[in-house]
Amino acid sequence: MTPTEVEREMGVDIAMQWGNGYEATVSSFVNIISTPKGGTHVAGFEKALTKAVNDVLRATKTLKNNEADVIKDDVQEGLTAVVTVRMSEPQFEGQTKEVLGTAAAAKIVGQVVADEMKAFFNTTKRIDKATGRLILEKIANASRTRISARAHKDLQRRKNALESSSLPTKLSDCRSDDPTRTELFIVEGDSALGTTKAARNSEFQAILPIRGKILNVQKASLSQMLENNECASIIQVIGAGSGKSFDINDARYGRVILMSDADVDGAHIRCLLLTLFNSYMRRLVEAGRVFAAIPPLHRIDVIGGKRGEVFYTYSDDEMKKVIAQLKKDGKRWKEPIQRYKGLGEMDADQLRETTMDPEHRTLRRITMKDVTKAEAMFELLMGNEVAPRKDFISNADIDRERIDA
């Protein structure tokens, strides 16, 4: 037996029409025999059609550089096509002849499709050119819709997982589950976590440390916010969802207290946190359940007199008044006066007495009397537009002595 190369001819006929629907209908035949399950001729047709359309979409810039290539389902959305090949000695898979198995058919059909589609989209005929443009727009929009739907689905899945999954390990939760008593302290920095845990009342006070400055959600999308570990942890710990799905009745804590250092960075972190609450958990702010802790700036230890007599002051003016009163009373104090640079410099007893003990602390309740003005201010301070923010900072009537810089 001697192998011999034999040339065979194949005829290819393809008819295509795109409609306004969403279903694809591709019928295929081999020598007038229907192949309902396709085969190599259909595979070659689909692969070549998708590649040809992608090439034209890129060449005409219908798809932007940052957009992904379209896939087969995008190209065939609303397509009705008939693929017919005529050939001698076709090879079928199985006895029912429903699938063409001739390997060469894929390459031949693919070459025909590539050549003809290129000629169609490069035509100079006005009608065909307009039709081609409509087809390209339809396919590009189908791709964008698919990607958008997938992103929304992934986002919803992440939100559901976020809201139903176990709490972060860095949360030091309280024992009580009564929202009328419980408090969540969101603490700046892991360095203050040990002192804060020792200073709290673990019966009703929970501690969640955040690392550095969280994402500015005023500039970020919902997906970016949920991908940020700190933002996701806060939403997960509060347990009431976010955005439109936020339900204040599901909140695990009656009060949320933002506790940051009494310096510029601490004020910035507090502002970033408030931006998160305003954008995704506004009902908590409107209900008056969000507070800012006010840690002291100075500690004045009195020498002589009552043993352990200490004064904490929260501003330079208050410190000057206390010093003046001590002078008037003939008392002395330890120099230099201690200036707290951060929460981590205070020991547990001092932090408990000044900032966390409900009997002695001072909290600032965050309110929103005018939602429109508040929203405009958040957009001004935290939004994308730099020029209005620069103008505001340059021309604002601010008492320079209040700025800790």
Chain-wise SSE layout:
Layout (H helix, E strand, L loop, with lengths): L9 E9 L6 E6 L2 E2 L5 H20 L12 H4 L3 E9 L4 E2 L5 E2 L2 H19 L4 H39 L18 E6 L4 H7 L5 E6 L11 H6 L1 H10 L16 E5 L4 H17 L1 H5 L3 E4 L4 E6 L6 E4 L2 H13 L3 E2 L4 E2 L8 H9 L6 E3 L5 H12 L3 H10 L10
Parallel strand pairs: 2-4, 7-8, 7-9, 9-10
Antiparallel strand pairs: 1-4, 2-3, 5-6, 10-15, 11-12, 11-13, 11-14
Helix pairs in contact: 1-3, 5-11
Overview of this protein structure:
The chain has 13 helices and 15 strands. A hairpin with a 2-residue loop joins strand 2 and strand 3. By secondary structure, the protein is α/β, with parallel strands linked by helices. The chain has 3 domains: 10-152, Ribosomal Protein S5, domain 2 (2-Layer Sandwich), CATH 3.30.230; 171-295 and 362-402, Rossmann fold; 298-339, no CATH class. Helix content is 42%, strand content 17%. The mean pLDDT is 85. Helix 1 packs parallel to helix 3 (103-121) and helix 5 (193-199) packs across helix 11 (348-356). Strands 8-7-9-10-15 form a 5-stranded mixed β-sheet, sandwiched between helices. It has a 4-stranded mixed β-sheet with strand order 1-4-2-3, covered by helices on one side. Strands 11, 12, 13 and 14 form a 4-stranded antiparallel β-sheet that branches. It starts with 9 loop residues before the first strand and ends in a 10-residue tail after the last helix. It has helices at 40-59, 72-75, 103-121, 126-164, 193-199, 222-227, 229-238, 264-280, 282-286, 316-328, 348-356, 371-382, 386-395; strands spanning 10-18, 25-30, 33-34, 79-87, 92-93, 99-100, 183-188, 205-210, 255-259, 290-293, 298-303, 310-313, 332-333, 338-339, 363-365. The chain is elongated, with a radius of gyration of 35 Å. The longest helix has 39 residues, at 126-164.
